[in-house]
Amino acid sequence: SMSHFVEFFVSGNLAKCVTMCYFLNSTAVYCLHNIVQRAFFGGRGTNKMGSKNQVVLADAGAEFRLLLKQTIEESGEFEVVGCTGSGHDAFMSIQRNKPQLLITDLMLPELDGLALLRKSRRLDDAPKVIILSAFCTNEMVHHAAQLGAYYFLTKPCQLDSLLCLMRQACR
Length: 171
Prior knowledge:
The structure is a single chain. By secondary structure, the chain is α/β, with parallel strands linked by helices. 50% of the residues lie in helices and 16% in strands. Strands 2-1-3-4-5 form a five-stranded parallel sheet, sandwiched between helices. The chain is globular and about 35 Å long. The chain starts with a helix and ends with a helix. 34% of the residues are buried.
């Protein structure tokens, strides 16, 4: 599965990563290509100005959203500048704060995750988008990739894997 691939990638076991590519569909390989391509550039946890990378979180589940915020902030590498259960509020936070990352669920009131992805990608300083959702089909992953999502991670997920993807996205 993708979470195993990420764990192998994080641990530096590239031989297993390559082997796993044979078992993944084309959308998954596209996402993996983005990760591998970005893994060789940039710093860790800070942007070009030397400050923490900023993140906006959008998830309708209040408990999960707060757990995610706490985990991200405790890493010491990221600053959560927006944390909301609404797609509309997340977009307003993106416009106001210009974060490097957006982590969003697909199921959001007012503006769903794909619409939020579509709108945020049109901005001049568009954040990289990681979709974190329990609603996962091959078609949905493919559609998200076509719209420019950096990665699609299924819930439940290992939060360490998410942090790794966040680091890679900010490089």
